[in-house]
């Protein structure tokens, strides 16, 4: 039986570890932004579109086809934003979709009851005539929306409209997590088998 040279064994092990590391690091787990302080938007909360319609900037992360930051009309709801982002992936966990909302930022905008500079001029802040929006200092509100329930019932009251600066997080399902664990375990098994072969070749 042909024996592996020590250098060949090290190269083989190093190559496999490199492939394994790249595979694991290549995954992009969704981080819950509710555990960190959301950056306050310094620019205007509202923007003017090409048709002079008011737009707001929102973010969508996770298991959608086109995650990212979007400028959308002020009356956009959660379902519309998911549609703008290409729709959910098969692995998406729609039962618990999170909306991270910085209410302190919104409250500070409403309290001014003023006009804000937008991209092409000024525009009144929607809702500037409302009563006081009471929030605790430095608090972010996290909403959990059951999109599956909406899809089953069609009850539009379950789906909120979005606010400026909202961040939507759609995580992966339990099945997706389980499949990733199985995938990782299979790669570890391959590594163990290669290690066994290398050790056997040394004898």
What does the model show?
- The protein is α+β, with helices and mostly antiparallel strands.
- The chain has two domains: 1-30 and 174-203; 33-171, Outer membrane lipoprotein wza fold like (Roll), CATH 3.10.560.10.
- The chain contains five helices and eight strands, in the order H-E-E-E-H-E-H-E-E-E-H-E-H.
- Strands 1, 2, 3, 4, 7 and 8 form a six-stranded mixed beta sheet that branches. Strands 5-6 form a two-stranded antiparallel sheet.
- The CATH class of the largest domain, by name, is Alpha Beta
Structural class: alpha+beta
Which fold does the CATH topology of the largest domain refer to? Outer membrane lipoprotein wza fold like
Mean pLDDT: 72
Number of spatially distinct domains: 2
What does the overall shape look like? elongated
Compute the number of strand runs. 8
- Which sequence of SSEs, written as H and E, runs from N to C? HEEEHEHEEEHEH
Uncertain spans, ≥5 residues at pLDDT below 50? 23-43, 114-138
Percent in helix: 25-40%
- Strand percentage, roughly? 15-25%
Largest sheet descriptor: 6 strands, mixed
Report the CATH architecture of the largest domain.
Roll
In whole angstroms, the N-to-C terminal distance is: 10 Å
CATH superfamily of the largest domain: Outer membrane lipoprotein wza domain like
- C-alpha Rg, in Å? 25 Å
Number of helices: 5
